[in-house]
Write a structure and sequence with these properties.
- This protein has 214 residues and is mainly alpha-helical.
- The protein is 51% helix and 0% strand.
- The longest helix has 15 residues.
- It is elongated, with a radius of gyration of 23 Å.
Length: 214
């Protein structure tokens, strides 16, 4: 019964108690280290590793206010959780959106390699070759070799490997966002507008517009 009472009190406090951003970040990290959370990680991070990360923030049973510790713990936890691998660790579009938010596409390696290019269909290979002004050879093997030579001292990133969502994925995401959901969004006031004002967001309207445009 104590567990039920604690859980209800915790949820009530989370729902309506003002929480500082640093504290909220720390609590999100702790949530990923919970015993009831299972993560198919795309890295080598296991459940006990996630809990080890949480212990760095909770010395003496108190959540730290050290921002450097919180930031590093958040990075480590996100590395262990977010994955774009095509296996059971796949996080879905949210990992792609997260990657786009921090410019992860700029960290993609040179894909003008025999190993990668051989994974493309002939049509896809010839499309990217034309886009990069590489002459098409009668044999796909030779076209791949020309692509490798073309980017011997450069970097080729296959457009389909970028983190940004495709128009089709954006449309599907929008459909899901506006469809039936158990989450009703931010609390609204009597006038039907969000309870958050411009000062609460930390950005002014011009800054928000620039972020959306980016």
């Amino acid at each position: 019964m104590i567990g039920d009472l604690r859980t209800d009190a915790l949820h009530q406090a989370l729902a309506d108690t003002p929480i500082e951003d640093d504290t909220l970040l720390g609590m999100l990290i702790l949530a990923f280290g919970g015993d009831n959370v299972t993560v198919d990680s795309g890295s080598d991070l296991r459940g006990d590793d996630r809990q080890a990360i949480c212990r760095t923030l909770t010395e003496g049973g108190v959540l730290t206010a050290d921002r450097d510790l919180l930031r590093q713990a958040a990075r480590n936890m996100l590395i262990g959780v977010l994955s774009c691998r095509e296996n059971r660790s796949q996080s879905g579009v949210f990992a792609r959106i997260a990657g786009e938010a921090i410019g992860a596409s700029l960290r993609l390696p040179n894909m003008a390699t025999e190993e990668f290019l051989s994974c493309l269909s002939r049509g896809a290979l010839e499309t990217v070759a034309r886009a990069e002004s590489v002459n098409i050879a009668p044999r796909a093997k030779d076209t791949r070799a020309r692509m490798v030579t073309r980017f011997k001292d450069g970097t080729f990133v296959y457009p389909g490997a970028l983190f940004r969502l495709t128009p089709e994925e954006l449309a599907a995401s929008a459909e899901q966002r506006h469809g039936p959901s158990g989450w009703v969004g931010p609390a609204t006031g009597d006038d039907g507008e969000s309870g958050e004002d411009e000062a609460d967001t930390g950005f002014d309207n011009d800054e928000l517009g620039e972020r959306e445009a980016a």
